[in-house]
Amino acid sequence: MNPRLRHWREAATLLLAAGTPGRPPRTPLGPFDYELLLLRRSSRSGFMPGAHVFPGGLAEPADFSAEWLGLLPASAHCGLGAVKPPPPGGSRAPLFATDRENLGSQLPGEVAFRICALRETFEEAGILLLVPGRGPAPPLPAERLPPAAELEEWRRRVREDASCFLRLCRHLGCAPNIWALHEWSNWLTPVGRAGRGGRRYDTAFYLCCLQERPPHVSQDDQEVTDVLWSSPPEAIERFKSQEIWFPPPQFYEFCRLCNFSSLGELQKFSSARALEGCERWMPVTLSAADGFIQLLPGDELYPEDPDYTGEKKMVMSTDKKVEDLMKEGGIFHRIVIKNINNLAVYVNIQAKYKHINPLMMNCDNSDHNSRL
């Protein structure tokens, strides 16, 4: 974590995909052989109450503890590959580029944020993703996990004290499976979407693919009140029908995951681009006469100097309708918001960092390929 940050806090989240072979198709996109884990936030939460989100949360000092070096490989980046230099004109996202040694941590940010995502997944959903020994190694088999009651006690301890996650790993003679997590994206909460007390987050999104659902999945009944496994198109259908709600970044990522109906394809793609990095995206909201547009970097209307801190009090608004703005435009990277459950993604720019653009899933139940 970075104690010098004033306007937001650092966090990590996990897109956890698990195989579900043989399930019948439920959407026009056909069968998907995997689902993703969604957790419903408590209605008492100070940020996105009641929303379905991927597991994750704030980075804690314990995630950056030098004691982790005793459980992880002594090689550079603890066995993780080095991320390639950014393309011309690009830069490494500040979340990852920050020199952690200057902040008093010997643990690289790429390692600490993965530990954070794994710890939070254990706290919120009871899922423990470990490898025996120091790793990298095949995942720890379910039969080697402690009994459910003991695991639940450890979960309670970790929830109360993040440093207990390291103690749990040491107790089991295991390491957190940081090597299964592939860097996927980086989202910064927009100024206008800050939670209670002005909470904003610079969040690392990681993707992890499992062959099957892990055992012992359950909500903690504190931060999380429900657990849902859903394929990307099913999640979007549930969103459209107002069965569930999730924030625009999750909607965008589900649309991007709709490119992959096979867990194997998703694993192959995420592994192939694992060391390409990503850029930080802070949506900038444009208020229109009949809705909102969240502009993302690369869109023709995205400001050259966005108001990252909120100190400029920048407001973008127009009397035009969303439809007119879409007809006038030509270079899109945006999320159109008509109401809380009526979103659409429009992208026709080239994806950077060897990533892939989302399918443009419209709320009129049609979809279009946006990879132009």
UniProtKB/TrEMBL annotation:
CDD domains: NUDIX_AcylCoAdiphos_Nudt19 (cd18870). GO terms for molecular function: coenzyme A diphosphatase activity; metal ion binding. Residues 7-252 form the Nudix hydrolase domain. SUPFAM superfamilies: Nudix. Gene3D superfamilies: Nucleoside Triphosphate Pyrophosphohydrolase (3.90.79.10). Its EC number is 3.6.1.77. It catalyses: an acyl-CoA + H2O = an acyl-4'-phosphopantetheine + adenosine 3',5'-bisphosphate + 2 H(+); tetradecanoyl-CoA + H2O = tetradecanoyl-4'-phosphopantetheine + adenosine 3',5'-bisphosphate + 2 H(+); (9Z,12Z)-octadecadienoyl-CoA + H2O = S-(9Z,12Z-octadecadienoyl)-4'-phosphopantetheine + adenosine 3',5'-bisphosphate + 2 H(+); (6Z)-octenoyl-CoA + H2O = S-(6Z-octenoyl)-4'-phosphopantetheine + adenosine 3',5'-bisphosphate + 2 H(+). One of its GO terms (cellular component) is mitochondrion. Keywords: Hydrolase, Magnesium, Manganese, Metal-binding. Its cofactor is Mg(2+); Mn(2+). It comes from the Eukaryota. Belongs to the Nudix hydrolase family. Fatty acyl-coenzyme A (CoA) diphosphatase that hydrolyzes fatty acyl-CoA to yield acyl-4'-phosphopantetheine and adenosine 3',5'-bisphosphate. Mediates the hydrolysis of a wide range of CoA esters, including choloyl-CoA and branched-chain fatty-acyl-CoA esters and at low substrate concentrations medium and long-chain fatty-acyl-CoA esters are the primary substrates. Highest activity seen with medium-chain acyl-CoA esters and higher rates of activity seen with the unsaturated acyl-CoA esters compared with the saturated esters. Exhibits decapping activity towards dpCoA-capped RNAs in vitro. PANTHER family: ACYL-COENZYME A DIPHOSPHATASE NUDT19, TESTOSTERONE-REGULATED PROTEIN RP2. This is Acyl-coenzyme A diphosphatase NUDT19. It comes from Cyanoderma ruficeps.
